Amino acid sequence: MKKYIKEIINVSNEIYNKGLVSGKAGNISKRIKGSTGDIIAITPTLKSLSDLKEEDIVLVDMDGNILTKGKPSSEVDMHLEIYKKRSDINAIVHTHSTYATGFAFSSKKIKRLEGFGEIKNPYLPSIEYYKPGTIELAKNASKSIENEDVLILKNHGVICVGKNLKEAKLLAIFVEENAKTQFVTYMLNSVED
C-alpha cells in the first residue's frame, strides 16, 4: 500500500511543479485491486498537491466509505463513478491546467492531436458545467468518459484516465501541451502580417 501512496504523492508533486494545478485545486486517485474488493487511494480535500505526506492520502472503498483518517477530495464521487463504469481504468488525474481550462471556459474545443493514442474523434469531448463535488457532476462525467481517455469539464477543468498513474499523468501533460499549441496558433492566426 505504501508504494501506491508514494506514487500518488510523486505524481501530485510533478503535476503541481508543471503548473497543471495550483493552490489547493486538482485531485488524483489510484485503484488498488484486492481479493475482497477494490480500494481507492485519493488525495485529500483542501490541501495543495505540492507538499502532500503519506498520512494525507485517504483510502476509501468503492461505496465511498472512508477507511483511514482524513477527508477525501470533494470530487471523490466523480472518481468512484468513473471507476465503477470503467474496470480498465486504475488511475485518474483531474487538473485545472491553465490552457486546457481556458478552453473549458471558452466556446473553442481542443483538437485531439497525434501523439497519444488513436484519434477516434477530432476534438476532446466535453460536458456542460455541473457544480464541483456534486453527484450530478459525478454521474455526467462518468457517463461521458465511458469510451474516452480525456474529458473537458466546461468552466472547470480536465479529467484524464489511464490504466496506471503514469499513463493518466502523461495524458494530462499532453492535453495541456496540445491546448497551449492551439492557443498560440489561434493567436498567431488572428494577427495580420
Kindly list the characteristics that best describe this protein:
35% helix, 193 residues, alpha+beta, 7-stranded mixed β-sheet
Description:
With 193 residues, the chain is of the alpha+beta class. 35% of the residues lie in helices and 16% in strands. It has 5 helices and 7 strands; from the N terminus they run αβββαβαβαββα. It has helices at residues 2-17, 76-85, 98-104, 135-144, 165-189; strands at residues 27-32, 39-42, 58-61, 91-95, 126-127, 150-153, 157-162. It has a 7-stranded mixed beta sheet with strand order 3-2-1-4-7-6-5, with helices on both faces. Helix 1 (2-17) runs parallel beside helix 5. The longest helix is centred in the C-terminal third of the chain and has 25 residues, at 165-189. The termini are far apart.
Largest sheet: 7 strands, mixed
**In percent, how much strand structure appears in the residues?**
15-25%
Estimated radius of gyration: 16 Å
Taking pLDDT < 50 over at least 5 consecutive residues as the criterion, the unreliable ranges are none
Give the strand order of the largest sheet, numbering strands 1, 2, ... along the chain: 3-2-1-4-7-6-5
Query: Structural class, from helix and strand content?
Result: alpha+beta
Percent of residues in helical segments?
25-40%
Average pLDDT, all residues: 94
| Strand and helix order | HEEEHEHEHEEH
Number of helices: 5
| Terminus-to-terminus distance | 58 Å
Approximate shape: globular
- The count of DSSP E runs of length 2 or more, i.e. the number of strands, is 7
